[in-house]
Structures are given as structure tokens and as C-alpha cells.
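agent: user wants the structure for ADP-ribosyl cyclase/cyclic ADP-ribose hydrolase 1 from Vombatus ursinus. delegating to structure tool.
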Amino acid sequence: MVRESSPCRSQKCRCLLLGLTVILIFGAVAVFAAVIFAGRRDPPAVLLQWKGRGSTDNLKEIMLGRCFTYTEMVNPELRKDCLKIWETFKNAFISKNPCNITEQDYQPLMELAAHPILCNKTLLWSKTNELAHKYTKVQGNFLTLEDTLLGYMADGLTWCGNPSSSEMNYQSCPHWRECANNPSSVYWKMASRAFAEAACGVVHVMLNGSISQPFGNSSIFGSVEVHHLNPKKVHLMKIWVMHNIGGQPSDSCSGSSIKELKSIIEGRNIAFSCEDDHRAVQLIQCVGNPEEPACRVCRT
Ligand SMILES: *[C@@H]1O[C@H](CO)[C@@H](O)[C@H](O)[C@H]1NC(C)=O
Ligand SMILES: *[C@@H]1O[C@H](CO)[C@@H](O)[C@H](O)[C@H]1NC(C)=O
Ligand SMILES: *[C@@H]1O[C@H](CO)[C@@H](O)[C@H](O)[C@H]1NC(C)=O
Ligand SMILES: *[C@@H]1O[C@H](CO)[C@@H](O)[C@H](O)[C@H]1NC(C)=O
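agent: tool returned. relaying C-alpha cells verbatim.
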């Protein structure tokens, strides 16, 4: 015979059930309190909101990896402590207002990461990012800022901190139009200045002749690098104005923009020369455009 299924008729059983219920309620209350308490102890940081992209995900891993790649493989003679470089980099901006970064913040990093650059090897560029780096990769004898440790580590990355937290702000960072003294702008300004100051002998510059002003005085090249070449060390600036293959040239060595640059450079007692579409660089452009008239072996 099947017994009626209503549970717990006995006193003992009721007690057990009551006990279990009490334990369950206490447990739930304890977990709830723990969550609230933990939340109180470590309140979520209030992140300032900006218009620019937030810090690059995995910034630390990327920068450390690049530093090791650079010091082990790209430039193996260089003796640098990458962990110390990362810590010094982070300390420049972490827990600070990202609109209030100063040159002093980055000074220790600049000193730590500096390395010598041989004479005649400096290649500056403006608005020719892709072509300039393709060229130095193939040519092997020139260095852009992005081929130095500081430029190599930070190329294409974004970073900023937040005053109320010791973490990166991965949500947003100031756009350069929001404030000039943001972590990236100050970094690139200082790294560019140090790169220009280190240049000696002949300095080459690759500019873009397919935009209306190949030389712009508000670019990093026009506002920082031009003014920090040392005339005691740099005796000649060679400009290459490159045009998009098959496109309509917009300006050239004889344009007013380059003339303005010439007068600034000569005013600083550095000799100046300019060449349109330097052939060795044009050959790099021709890899992707072999049929264009400018790329034929026998040009008329
Ligand atoms: C910016 O930094 C300077 C010096 O570190 C400090 O005196 C000033 O109060 C800071 N301003 C803001 C808005 O954080
Ligand atoms: C740099 O180039 C100049 C001119 O081409 C040359 O006279 C000089 O010897 C070169 N210096 C080095 C270190 O190669
Ligand atoms: C010149 O600038 C334009 C616009 O930024 C770009 O599309 C082009 O690739 C640049 N040309 C060269 C030769 O770098
Ligand atoms: C940049 O050039 C423009 C004219 O081309 C001039 O009005 C301006 O003052 C210059 N700015 C600087 C910082 O030299």
C-alpha cells in the first residue's frame, strides 16, 4: 500500500524542516550582506568621460611585448629593462587627470628609454605614415620615430588614467581637441622632440604632395621637429615630396607650403634641398601600381 505523500507528520521531521529553513534564510542574508559590504569597501571608480577612444585593451601586454621584441630582436645591442620601462611609463599618467599631464611626468621615461641614433639615418615624415614606414622597412638604413624604442612601443596605441583610480580608463580618453595636455599628445611631443634633437648629419623628410599643404606648421613635424633640429649637428635637410601614384598632384617642391618650410630651415642655418617623387620611394608605391605610367621602366 502506498502511503499518503504529505511529508513530515512527525515532530522530529518538522523541527528538521524549520531548522533547514532558518539556515537557508541566514545563508541568503549572509551572502547578500557580503556582496553589499564588499561593494562598500571597494566602490566602483567614477570614470571621467571623454570624446576620444579609451585605453587600448591589453595595453600592458602589448607594450611589454613590443619592448622585449625591440630590445631582443630589432635592436639587440640595446640593454633596457622593459619591466622598469613599463612601470615608469604607467607612473607618468596613472591616477592623474588626463587633461593635466606635464612634461615632468614623462621625463623619467624619456631618460630611461633614450638611445643613440646614428648620423644621416633620421627620416622625419608628415602625412605619409604608411609610405614612410614601408620605405624604412625595405630600405633598412633609415629610422623613423616609430623605429626607435619609444615610438615602437606606443605606435597606434591609446592610454589614459583617471584621478580616482589606479586603473587605466578603458572607456574613453581625451581627444586632442578636448585638451592638449593629454597622455598621448604629451608623450608624442616629447618623443618627437628628443628624436629631432638627436638627429645629426643629413636629415630626410617625407612629405605628402597630394594634400593642399605638404608642410603644415601645426603638424608634429612643423610645430616640434623643425624647431628642435640642432644646427650645430644637422647641416642639411633633404625633403622628398611624394605624390599618390596616378593621382592629381596638389602641391610640390615649388609650392608655397614648401617655400615656407625652406625659409624656416634656412633661417635656422641648415641647408635645404627638395625633390619631387624620389625614385627609390616611388618604386615602393609602384609595387601596388605596376601598370601606372610613372611605374614603367622606360618612362617618357
Ligand atoms: C594640474 O596639475 C598641477 C600640477 O601637478 C596641479 O597644481 C593642478 O591642481 C592640477 N589641476 C587639475 C585640474 O587637476
Ligand atoms: C653623412 O652624410 C654626409 C653627406 O652625404 C657625409 O659627408 C658624411 O660622411 C655622412 N656621415 C656619416 C656618419 O655617415
Ligand atoms: C597623402 O594623404 C592622403 C590623405 O591623408 C592619403 O590618403 C595618401 O595616402 C597620402 N599620400 C602619400 C604618398 O602618403
Ligand atoms: C602657421 O602659419 C599660418 C599661415 O600659414 C600663420 O598665420 C600662423 O601664425 C602660423 N602658426 C605658427 C605657430 O607659426
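agent: one observation worth passing along. Residues 127-128, 131, 208, 210-211, 242, 244 surround 2-acetamido-2-deoxy-beta-D-glucopyranose (ligand 3) (CB under 6 Å).
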